[in-house]
Amino acid sequence: MVALIVIGSILLFLLLVLLCPVKLSVTYQETLSLTLRYAFVKIRLLPSKTPEKASAAKEKKPKKEKKPPSEEGGKPKSFFQKLKEQHGISGLLYLGKELLKLAGSSLKGFFSHVVVYHLHGDVRIATDDAAQTAIQFGQACAVLEPCMAVLMPLVPKKKRKDVKLYVAPDFTSEVSKIGVYAEVGIRPLFVFSTVFYALFRFIAIYVRAGQRAKERKAENDGQTQPIPENPTKAV
User: What is the reported pTM?
Assistant: First the structure.
């Protein structure tokens, strides 16, 4: 009984850990700032170091000496060349098509669990010429509107909490300004489920591609098998 209580408590704790959302905050005001939050833990990803510390770390880093390539072995074959030899062109095309399908379905499943808590964008277009400001404003709208039209449907509407995008020309200034604040989150449970699903699908696709390559090789060997000549009769 005690063992069941301990196991149940551990499983409940793991479930709570996996259901606690991981949040990523992005802020851009002349400099980019990235912050990762999980429960009570807060990690600043960018800026990670001050410029002075970063330059000091670069100076202290020793330079690695380049080793001359070995003349005996020659150039090693790349992963793509090995795949090409193993599967052929048709096998590579099949593998690429299946992997693209897998990437699309995995990304669709991943984004369906993403929650957009905040997405605020403030873009002010400004130049020293009013006509040029109007032209650049039109160009900015022509780029941003299709991007939003493609990205927003990836996240379900009920999971988009606060989305605001403001783009306007500023004829009183000569310098354009861009301000972005975004906060998105996802539960680790959905991340692990998506990763494991993609991994198992990838293994199945790779095994299927290997079987197809073996079958094609067997067919080619059967077609190219030499036909024995008829023995000549002795007179």
Answer: 0.66
